[in-house]
Amino acid sequence: MKEIGNFLKERREARGVSLIEVEKDLKIRKKYLQAIEEGNIDIIPGKTYLIGYLRNYSKYLGVDEENINQIIQTYKNLEKSKSNLEETGENIILPKKHKRDKSIFEKKKFFFPIKYVYLISFILIICIGLLFLSHSLKEAQNFPIPSPEIAKETDINIEKNINLETEAIIAEYPKEKDISNDTLPFLKLIANDKSWIKILSGGKIIFEGILFTGEVFSWKTDQALEIITEYPTKIEAYYNDKIIEINKGVINNYILKYNFNPTQNV
């Protein structure tokens, strides 16, 4: 019956007609038309009504008389086969019922062992955890605890080693008197706007970073320096409070390099 319904549905959709339009034209309720197309004919009241619906619906969709008779005959054959199955239904249904009952019982038998397996597994995990905890506590009890005297001696030795290492570091790196000496003149850079600056002395970087507006960088030195910044410059440079005209440096790709020598520039 599903094949007949699909055939009629395709004919209707090919004509561009909705079930509501068919309902208005044939005076057949939409739910019965939909049941015919879906092959769900059990909701249609009576065989006579169904044959009439099939005939009228087929004519409405332009199906010729020969095909209409074939549709009706196909429906009758299906009904005849269905009635024959109902007569022999007891012989067919009973074995299926027994099989279904058997499978239910099998599921119940299979369910209980799994439940016990989970319970036993849970108990085993708890037991293993307790054994592991007990073993760890025993090891902790057997772990030797150093006496207070040994601990004090160890702390004294550590302090001595730290002091010796500190003295060695201080001896290796003597104080730079030329930098910290108060008699050395100041190099001072003042940022008028956010500006990137890099200062080198003897090929080593003394400072590299960004000075924000109003920020000041000071350095005590009497050595030659290379001052690098962006161009146009946004900083003012002073050496011993005397202005340095760093704009006279070399400009390349918006980068200014100024070689400052205290003996020459001041």
TrEMBL record:
Query: One GO molecular-function annotation for this sequence?
Result: DNA binding
UniProt keyword Membrane, yes or no: yes
Q: Which residues cross the membrane?
A: 116-137
| Boundaries of every HTH cro/C1-type domain copy | 8-68
* Keyword annotations: Membrane, Transmembrane, Transmembrane helix
The record's section on CDD domains has: HTH_XRE
Entry's Pfam families?
Answer: HTH_25, RodZ_C
Checking PROSITE patterns in the record gives: HTH_CROC1
Q: Superkingdom of this entry's organism? A: Bacteria
InterPro entries, from UniProt? Answer: Bact_Cytoskel_RodZ, Cro/C1-type_HTH, Lambda_DNA-bd_dom_sf, RodZ-like_C
Q: What is this protein called?
A: HTH cro/C1-type domain-containing protein
The organism of origin for this protein:
Candidatus Infernicultor aquiphilus
